Amino acid sequence: MSEDTKEISSVSDLLQEVKNVEEYCFDPGMGESLFWYRGHSDETWELQPAVLRNVHADLIHQMESIKSSNKWDNVFANERTINRRFRNEAYSYLGHVPAVRLYFAAQHHGLPTRLLDWSLNPLVALYFACRDENNIGNDGCVYRLFPRDLPHIFLGRSENPPSPFDDIVSEYRPIIKKFIRHCLFDFKSPGEFNKLHNIPVIPIIPTDITDRIRVQASRFTFHPPATEQSLNSLLPPQSLLSILQEKKRSLVKYIVPSDKKTNILAELNRLGIHGYSLFPDLDNLALHLKTIYCSRLTYLPLGSSSSGKTGP
Q1: Domain-embedded: residue 269
Q2: Number of domains comprising the chain
Q3: CB-based burial, 158-172: b 16+ in 10 Å, e otherwise
Q4: pTM of the model
Q5: Residue 191: other Cβ atoms inside 10 A
């Protein structure tokens, strides 16, 4: 990750960064951005999926430590339990669906998974860096990822795949089905993962199965378990920061100062990026209308204060 961390104080700041990077790295054959974006409302948060964050892992290990002395074995055992429960008890809502589809549905509804959300739209990431009222006083951040610099998954080899589309896969690719089904439903022992190549992170283009995935221009990275050949227990997870630390432009972090968040939310609202546009359901429609017509503190005229004054 770049050592020269920049600040994003407005929508235009972020768009300028997007323009700058697209000028030197653009593939017209793709027809879309080559970069993915993610926002954190607290810039100190780990860049890991929910299952692999230390706060979650330490809690699970404390609960499950009687089973194993290896924290990550215990986390994995707990993960498999809750995913199997989700499969059993969500049947009346989802019916019989493939394991991969079920896993993305679990992520969508808030179950801790090994999926990390990204977006093709940098403004979506900027919104998530600013929206959380509980962290409004903390600096946020936006991450920019170049997913094609992750280790290629084609046949588990590091060389370039035969097609430019084979290094970022759909959720229907056999290797994704194999990883997720094997991780969560057909698991025998940690050593079995060696047969699937210990690939630390897999970039995935999801199927648009929900409105939320579509309107958020969602992309995902999947962070599978890993073992060593000589061990029968899981290794600590690798982070994107460590995997890409030698590649300067592959993972860039922009700081969003806490005192700029409210104004950025107002800018985004005027561009159609707000809670209801990204979470299109009746609850968020009602909340959006209540906010803009009843409180409006988040959407005051740009440059104004809560006293109602506008302008410089």
Answers
A1: no
A2: 1
A3: eeeeeeeeebbbebe
A4: 0.85
A5: 14
